[in-house]
Amino acid sequence: MRAELVVAQTHRFTRIDPLLPPARPVAEGLELVATLPDGDRVAGKLSAPTTAPENWMLHPVIGDKGTRGMDAILRAARAALDGTETQPAASCTVTWPSRDAEATRALLDHGFAPSSALAIRTASGEPASPGDIRIRTSRPCLDTFVLDAELAGAPAGTVTVSEVDVADAGPLGALLLTGRWGLLRGPLVPETVRRRGSGSALMAAAHAELGRAGIGRSHLVHDPHDPVTTVFLHRHGYRPLWTTWTARPLSVMR
Ligand SMILES: CC(C)(COP(=O)(O)OP(=O)(O)OC[C@H]1O[C@@H](n2cnc3c(N)ncnc32)[C@H](O)[C@@H]1OP(=O)(O)O)[C@@H](O)C(=O)NCCC(=O)NCCS
What we know:
Elements: H1 2-16, E1 30-35, E2 41-47, E3 55-61, H2 66-82, E4 91-97, H3 101-109, E5 113-121, E6 133-141, E7 144-151, E8 154-166, E9 179-188, H4 198-212, E10 218-222, H5 227-235, E11 239-247
Parallel strand pairs: 3-4, 9-10
Antiparallel strand pairs: 1-2, 2-3, 4-11, 5-10, 5-11, 6-7, 7-8, 8-9
Helix pairs in contact: 2-3
């Protein structure tokens, strides 16, 4: 049953968002199965916490079942956690395709809220940034470069960019299509010089450096609640691929 659900989930993911990699089974964790009212079944794995405070990770395998499937597996996870000793500060997370509106409905109904987003950029093109910002590039190691912005001789922000090879079997292979990607950490611009274009200049320089290395795709993780970051990233061609949903504390999970 699990193998069929994984195949159906891959097809559904591809329909929702062609930039999602194929779904893959999760090896470790407590096996969950839930039966829908029409007799269809969905599955999932609940990974035991490895961090303090406890963070349970749910990996739903709901095939093409959308809201009903996500609802059923979240109920099964809640029941399994009810039968487990958990700490008061424990939480549960689900990382799921951002564009899946059907699953979003069920996650919200069960007390989950978005806690982080993995956003990607695959297109070229950049909004114009002012010409009075200087960018310095350094390479602390072979696959990483750091860009520092200067405005009128004073520091005006930084971004760190890594070149990442995503393989099918590696941990990132569950999130991104295989091949070479850029990974951005930042940018971070000092508050006193924000809104003067240095964040944009850093993004343009980061994408240009990646382009020179033959990498046309990049990703980063951001806080989906921050309205400035969300607008800024959209301006620079990023859009969410995966959203991590969290129920914290576990008592808010229904
Ligand atoms: C996000 C951040 C890097 C932006 O840097 P910045 O130098 O202020 O950005 P820019 O001046 O280049 O702004 C580019 C565009 O982003 C958007 N933007 C930036 N700040 C904004 C704000 N306070 N309100 C609304 N839109 C904003 C606008 O669309 C702006 O274009 P516009 O000025 O033509 O309207 C900066 O606010 C920051 O360091 N924030 C904290 C760290 C962070 O969240 N980093 C992002 C991690 S993914």
